[in-house]
Write a structure and sequence with these properties.
There is one protein chain. By secondary structure, the protein is an alpha+beta fold. It contains 8 helices and 9 strands. About 35% of the residues lie in helices and about 30% in strands. The strands form 3 sheets. It has a 4-stranded mixed beta sheet. A 3-stranded antiparallel beta sheet has the order 2-4-8. Strands 1-9 form a two-stranded antiparallel sheet. Helix 3 runs antiparallel to helix 5. The model has no long low-confidence stretch (mean pLDDT about 95).
């Protein structure tokens, strides 16, 4: 049985993949530029998620208005851990949360069909004060997963879950430094 609070992600020695859902206008501009540019908003918190299935649940497999395009954002592990080092759990004192540059919340992980599982996925809210570091320094590449998402969703609707699972990104436990794990994963 998996620990209740554990980061699972697509990662390698230098990078981690997080997922975001955007409108076509934001996704197209970002993909053309190879980085986030307007109409992406640099004036509000943006939420990044290393759990592909949680984002599929949140965006209804890219069918929710304004979330039709699914991007995989490959970012440096250094940036990811820097963001987490500035994070406050959303369950903390409200005044502390209001001052935090980065927010972390844990939500039930999801199955391909959207059912809540018994372990949690991390959501990281990158605030305005660190947003430029995320978009300009930490982001390595952007990949449009929308065609893959549409195909997987169609397979699930057709009752072909095994085939759909083969299209999902591989995720495994992300080895957090102990201090971050103790601070962010034990309190949930």
């Amino acid at each position: 049985m998996a620990p209740r609070y554990q980061i699972r992600a697509d990662h390698d020695a230098a990078t981690i993949v997080v997922y975001q859902a955007y409108s076509p206008a934001i996704a197209d501009a970002a993909l053309r530029a190879g980085r986030f540019v307007p109409p992406f908003s640099f004036h509000r918190m943006t939420w990044i998620k290393p759990s592909f299935l949680w984002l599929m649940h949140r965006s209804n497999w890219g069918r929710k208005p304004g979330q039709e395009r699914i991007l995989a954002v490959r970012m440096t592990r250094e940036g990811w851990e820097e963001a987490l080092s500035r994070a406050v759990l959303t369950t903390a004192d409200p005044a502390e949360v209001a001052r935090a540059a980065v927010h972390v919340q844990w939500d039930p992980e999801r199955s391909p069909r959207g059912a809540a599982l018994n372990h949690y996925s991390i959501q990281v809210g990158v605030g305005r004060s660190v947003l430029r570091a995320y978009t300009d320094d930490w982001t390595v590449s952007l990949t449009d997963l929308t065609p893959q998402v549409r195909k997987a969703a169609a397979l699930l609707r057709a009752g072909r879950a095994a085939q759909a699972r083969r299209l999902l990104p591989g995720e495994r436990v992300y080895p957090l430094p102990r201090a971050l794990e103790d601070r962010l994963c034990s309190a949930g």
